């Protein structure tokens, strides 16, 4: 299956040379989860905090579907 992924902020360094927020097309196994996608991109799990699928926040065990749009955000600090 194919999913479209956007990596934001510091996660963009895992984006195969793409700038933050630009889409990547990723091919995964049919039964892949968000966790599998994060692993596929070689992102340490502790570097992801907010995971969106089709605009809805999901947990890392969420099963992906062909054509899903995924957004991955790191922990964000501020004050």
Summarize the structure.
By secondary structure, the protein is mainly β.
The helix count comes to 1
Major sheet details? 5 strands, mixed
**Architecture (CATH level 2) name:** Roll
The 3D shape can be described as: globular
Strand order of the largest sheet: 2-1-5-3-4
Report on this structure.
This protein is mainly beta and 79 residues long. The chain has a single domain (2-73), classed as Ubiquitin-like (UB roll), CATH 3.10.20. The protein contains 1 helix and 5 strands; from the N terminus they run ββαβββ. The chain has a 5-stranded mixed beta sheet with strand order 2-1-5-3-4, with no helix packed on it. The mean pLDDT is 93.
Describe the secondary-structure layout.
Elements: E1 2-7, E2 23-27, H1 34-40, E3 50-53, E4 56-57, E5 69-73
Parallel strand pairs: 1-5
Antiparallel strand pairs: 1-2, 3-4, 3-5
């Amino acid at each position: 299956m194919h999913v479209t992924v956007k990596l934001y902020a510091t996660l963009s360094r895992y984006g195969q040379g793409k700038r933050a927020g630009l889409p990547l097309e990723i091919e995964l196994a049919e039964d892949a989860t968000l966790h599998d996608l994060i692993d596929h991109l070689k992102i340490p799990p502790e570097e992801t905090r907010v995971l969106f699928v089709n605009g809805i926040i999901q947990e890392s065990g969420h099963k992906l579907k062909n054509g899903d749009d995924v957004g991955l955000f790191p922990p964000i600090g501020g004050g």
